[in-house]
Amino acid sequence: MKENMKMRVDIVSVVPEIFDSFLSVSIPKIAQKKGIVEIYVHNLHKYSTDKFGHIDDTPYGGGSGMVIQCEPVFRCIEELKIQRDYDEVIYFTADGEIYNQSIANELSQKKNLILLCGHYKGVDQRIRDVLVTREISVGDFVLSGGEIPAMLFLDSIIRLIPGVLGDSQSIFEDSFQSGLLEPPIYTKPAEFRGLKVPEVLLSGDHKKIEEWRFQEALKKTKRLRPDLLNE
Fold it and tell me: pTM of the predicted model, to two decimals?
């Protein structure tokens, strides 16, 4: 992503207040304060035509749970699309593609994103068929809504945008960026309660340190995530 490029993210949610604290601290706050990322949260209830602001109903064919209706979602997203072009409309769902670092790297380079957070039983299939361009799952489990996955997603892509982190080089040393898990890391003191930092890290020999880190990352990956080595 170019240094002068700004990302805009529009979040569509049934419970927008859940994002208040998340967006006001740490990396999301820094990115917004620097003007690198703009994040807007839209309350889906405001797009309801029901006088009580209802946006859900029972599923056709019977069954438990409530389903988010087409009209409020279509109204919200179509209104946003009138104002600008969007690279992706992302819906968080348990049956989407499993999220990983490669996808985070890809999507961190986009300019405009819409994040649709499902709730209750999910959204009407016609929303997925017509509006959604990408469906993402953060794991093989079910949550009450898409808001937590949306926060996880945002944190993972915002930190990748140039200028957000003070030390941009650090993102290339994260787990998964090289296909390996991150090696063990240490800080001062060099000895704590008899537990010592590996001597090589204190040696000042950068070549030996890099080799040690690679070997440790490889061993850790073989032990904890051997599946990564087979990809």
Answer: 0.84
- Name the fold adopted by 175-230: Trp Operon Repressor; Chain A (1.10.1270)
**pLDDT 10s digits, 61-72:** 988 889 999 999
Coil, strand or helix at 36: coil
Name the amino acid, one letter, at 4: N
Q: 37 vs 30, 89, 163, 167, CA distance in Å?
A: 9, 17, 10, 18
CA-CA distance, 44 to 117, in Å (whole number)? 10
Q: Would you call the peptide bond into 189 cis, given omega within 30 degrees of 0 as the criterion?
A: yes
Q: Which CATH superfamily is domain 7-158 in?
A: SPOUT methyltransferase, trefoil knot domain (3.40.1280.10)
**Burial level of 164, CB count in 10 A (0-12/13-18/19+)?**
buried
